[in-house]
Design goal:
The protein is α/β, with parallel strands linked by helices. Helices cover 35% and strands 17% of the residues. The chain is built from 24 helices and 24 strands. A seven-stranded parallel beta sheet has the order 15-14-13-16-17-18-19, sandwiched between helices. Strands 3-2-1-4-5-6 form a six-stranded parallel beta sheet. The chain has a six-stranded parallel beta sheet with strand order 9-8-7-10-11-12. Strand 10 (252-255), helix 9 and strand 11 (279-281) form a beta-alpha-beta unit. Helix 2 crosses helix 18 (421-439). Mean pLDDT is 88; it is low at 659-664. This is Glycosyltransferase.
């Protein structure tokens, strides 16, 4: 038995999903059990995943997802959102048994030019009552919706209004002294959400150097109607920024739409008020928001913005009044109270469990994409507790990430899928789009090379910051084709190389705007070496040495290793030198990076031995069987030790996950 069941198409973008998420979170905080029931809407014909914020609620345990196998769902209250779901008969209606069934009318049947443009109320009512019984309550979300439906059905005395958690939406506003006021709006792309007349559109969102205009979602509609994009307009795609972060960049939220549209509520207006951004809208919104907003027609926007922008006390008074109004009328408490009136009472025990779970969840996530597990692990372990890393890698690397305790996702290679490189690029794009919607990362850190799949993913997912963990030490004359791809990223970090003086690769002449740190390793703080046993560590090279026992060791166990023979790949090279392990490096000539240059530089510096053949390696190991020879290499490593850049890399990444902070 659930306390609340919410039935809707869980793929809807915009306000419908935002409203569901707000109620789910309020219910979870009150200790109520929620189940979500997905019913595909006939007017959403294109395949698309669940809305990302709804996925987050399911992932974080704030709600369950009902099975679609025809089994019965039982709840005290069933809330049905979006009547357009029932504009056609359902192929398989869900089976729900509830004490109370409420259809939340969050959209009017039509607009001024066509009263039944979106749905025919009587047809929807017939279907809903056939599926869920005749005792359904029809609850409009505002007075405007009430007026359009009242002649057709008996309605409750109060509206099922939207809710919002004001504390979650408060932002730190960012203003530049003396800068012109910034006005803007956000919302899903829909032609009816914009003034139809170009003249009215430019009155509401002026083409003038004394004001800046920012649009998140739907701006392309306005640009098409104007036939151009004004120079003072900044237009971003829907989903490119979170609404909360976007609102932090505005001084005023200005919302005007097609005159024929019957706007049900204005969820984005509510969000702006909660964020502390004064709202300017048409007078018809006064019935919903009272004195909390500023009302004018489009022609009055510019003067109102100028006047209030100069009068800071009056501006701050509008902010305080709006926040107070939203908290009192649309806060979570109002929703819990109306559920209580239906017999759904908060539960203390579950509320405490949910609160504990919520406080333990990370506030931010980052995706690490590639098979660069060692460096990813080193960086992830130095991130603060409120930032969680998710590693996206191939099958060969996932066990290492699992062993490190990292959250992982599988990204199969083209060979594993048996597809061409071109088809694989499309798969990578779609896979990363899904993972970005699932985890909502603030940043995506890409290791290795930014191949076509990564480029396509960046083009299709502008929301997170895309960053490149760019390897150095390329072989001379190779890899230069990747240089231009650096422009795709908001930041590039190049881990340091002990052998940097021997680097002849293309990155040595392309470091403008690139951040660098010391070599990144997962070594613990320096500990004294304790090599009581004659142990031999082999990494990527097969070898034996009479009198030595072959062992395996990770970064934490290198202090116990007496001698090593290894490839000169980035991780092994810097871990072994950083831990002071006497090492014979055997570079792999087929490696993508310049292992030979690394090994030769280490030999020239006297910190290791370079061997380019099996015979040379065997001879070097025999020499190092002598304790004095090994100790000489260890002392030399200690004399020219290098720092660990993992902490600085984590700090750099953290700056890129925080919009307010400067990055670089």
């Amino acid at each position: 038995m659930y306390d609340v069941a919410i039935l809707s198409d869980l793929r809807y973008p915009g306000g419908n999903s935002a409203s569901i998420v707000a109620e789910v979170r309020a219910q979870a905080a009150a200790g109520l059990r929620t189940v979500l029931i997905h019913v595909p809407s006939p007017h959403l014909r294109h395949a698309r995943p669940f809305q990302s914020r709804i996925v987050a609620c399911l992932r974080d345990g704030l709600a369950d997802l009902a099975h679609d196998d025809g089994s019965e769902t039982e709840a005290k209250v069933l809330l049905i959102r979006q009547p357009r779901i029932f504009t056609a008969d359902l192929a398989r209606p869900p089976v729900v048994r509830a004490d109370h069934t409420i259809v939340v009318l969050n959209q009017a049947p039509g607009d001024a030019s066509d009263p039944e443009r979106y749905y025919v109320f009587d047809e929807v009512r017939e279907r809903v009552e056939r599926y869920f019984g005749a005792g359904v309550v029809w609850a409009p979300i505002s007075a405007r919706i009430r007026d359009t439906v009242a002649p057709r059905a008996a309605l409750p005395d109060t509206d099922w209004h939207e809710i919002i958690d004001v504390a979650d939406w408060q932002v730190e506003r960012r203003r530049e002294p003396g800068a012109p006021p910034v006005i803007g709006r956000h919302g899903r792309p829909d032609p009816v959400k914009w003034p139809r007349d170009p003249g009215e559109l430019l009155q509401a969102y002026p083409d003038s150097p004394d004001v800046r205009v920012r649009v998140l979602g739907g701006g392309e509609i306005a640009v098409e109607r104007l036939g151009r994009r004004p120079e003072n307009w900044d237009v971003a795609d829907f989903g490119a920024e979170s609404p909360r972060d976007f609102l932090a960049t505005l001084d005023f939220f200005v919302y005007f739409h097609d005159r024929d549209l019957v706007e049900g509520f204005g969820r984005t207006i509510l969000e702006a008020m909660a964020a502390g951004v004064p709202v300017i809208a048409g007078p018809h919104f006064r019935a919903v928001f009272g004195d909390a907003a500023l009302y004018t027609d489009a022609s009055g926007v510019r003067d109102l913005v100028r006047r209030l922008h100069k009068d800071r006390p009056a501006y701050d008074a509008v902010v305080r009044r709006a926040r107070s109004f939203v908290s009192e009328h649309f806060g979570n408490a109002s929703h819990i109270a109306r559920l209580a009136s239906l017999g759904v009472m908060p539960g203390r025990e579950r509320r405490e469990r949910v609160t504990a779970a919520a406080t333990s969840r990370p506030a931010r996530r980052v995706l690490f994409v590639a098979d660069d597990i060692a460096r990813f692990r080193a960086i992830a372990r130095r991130l603060p507790a409120h930032v969680e890393a998710v590693v996206v890698a191939g099958s060969a690397s996932l066990p290492q990430a699992h062993a490190a305790g990292l959250l992982t996702e599988y990204l199969p290679a083209a060979g594993e899928l048996g597809v061409s490189d071109e088809r694989w690029a499309g798969f990578v794009r779609d896979r990363l789009r899904h993972l970005i919607e699932l985890y909502g990362p603030k940043a995506v850190l890409v290791g290795g090379v930014p191949h076509d799949g990564i480029a396509a993913a960046i083009a299709g997912n502008a929301g997170p910051r895309w960053l490149w963990l760019r390897p150095a030490m390329w072989k001379r004359g190779t890899g230069g084709e990747w240089a231009a791809r650096g422009a795709l990223f908001a930041g590039i970090l190049e881990p340091g190389e002990f052998a940097a003086a021997g680097d002849e690769g293309w990155t040595t002449t392309a470091r403008a705007g690139v951040s660098t740190v010391d070599p990144i390793t997962d070594l613990p703080p320096r500990r004294p070496r304790r090599t009581r046993e004659r142990t031999l560590l082999c990494r990527g090279v097969e070898a034996t040495l009479p009198g030595f026992r072959t062992v395996e060791a990770g970064p934490d166990g290198l202090g116990e290793v007496a001698l090593a023979v290894s490839r000169a790949d980035y991780t092994s090279f810097h871990e072994l030198l950083g831990a002071g392990v006497p090492t014979v490096f055997v570079p792999d000539p087929a490696a993508g990076d310049d292992e030979l240059a690394r090994a030769r530089f280490a030999a020239a510096a006297g910190v290791a031995v370079c061997a380019t053949s099996d015979d040379e390696a065997a001879e070097a190991l025999e020499r190092l069987a002598a304790r004095e020879a090994r100790e000489a290499l260890s002392r030399r490593c200690a004399e020219i030790s290098f720092g660990n850049g993992a902490g600085d890399a984590a700090a750099w990444l953290l700056r890129h996950t925080t919009v307010e902070a400067p990055v670089g």
